[in-house]
């Protein structure tokens, strides 16, 4: 079991961590480590989170701090699709 970051999720991760780090480098590193811990958890337990079939069949969300990790289960893996601030209208941000 593992996790897979889709290209858009990788870009989200980079953009958010750089935004935080620009204001506070230590906080940026801490946030990034926190997200990787969640990805590893989801990789180990891809059935975690809230199933959001109302948005898209098979879509799941898991929140950490003010962010939603949006993913889907693929076999034994968690495929991370997006990382989006929870205050945003995140369903509109999906491909």
Concise overview:
Helices cover 39% and strands 29% of the residues. The chain is of the alpha+beta class and 95 residues long. The protein has a five-stranded mixed sheet with strand order 1-5-4-3-2.
Task: Tell me what you see in this structure.
The protein is α+β, with helices and mostly antiparallel strands and 95 residues long. It has one domain: YaeB-like fold (2-Layer Sandwich). The protein has helices spanning 7-23, 25-44; strands at 3-5, 50-51, 59-64, 67-74, 77-85. Helix 1 (7-23) runs antiparallel to helix 2 (25-44). The chain is globular, with a radius of gyration of 13 Å. The two termini are 25 Å apart.
How would you describe this structure in keywords?
39% helix, 5-stranded mixed sheet, globular, 29% strand, 95 residues, alpha+beta, YaeB-like fold
Strand content: 25-35%
CATH superfamily grouping: RelE-like
**Structural class estimated from helices and strands:** alpha+beta
Averaged pLDDT, please? 92
Read across the widest sheet, the strand sequence of neighbours is: 1-5-4-3-2
Residue windows where pLDDT falls under 50 for at least 5 positions: none
Major sheet description: 5 strands, mixed
CATH class: Alpha Beta
Distance between the termini: 25 Å
């Amino acid at each position: 079991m593992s996790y897979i970051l889709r290209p858009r999720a990788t870009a989200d991760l980079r953009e958010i961590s750089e935004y935080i780090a620009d204001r506070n480098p230590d906080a940026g590193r801490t946030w990034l480590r926190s997200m990787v811990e969640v990805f590893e958890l989801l990789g180990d337990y891809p059935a975690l989170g809230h199933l959001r079939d109302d948005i898209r069949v098979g879509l799941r969300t898991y929140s950490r701090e003010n962010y939603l990790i949006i993913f889907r289960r693929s076999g034994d893996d968690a495929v991370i699709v997006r990382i989006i601030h929870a205050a945003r209208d995140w369903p509109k941000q999906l491909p």
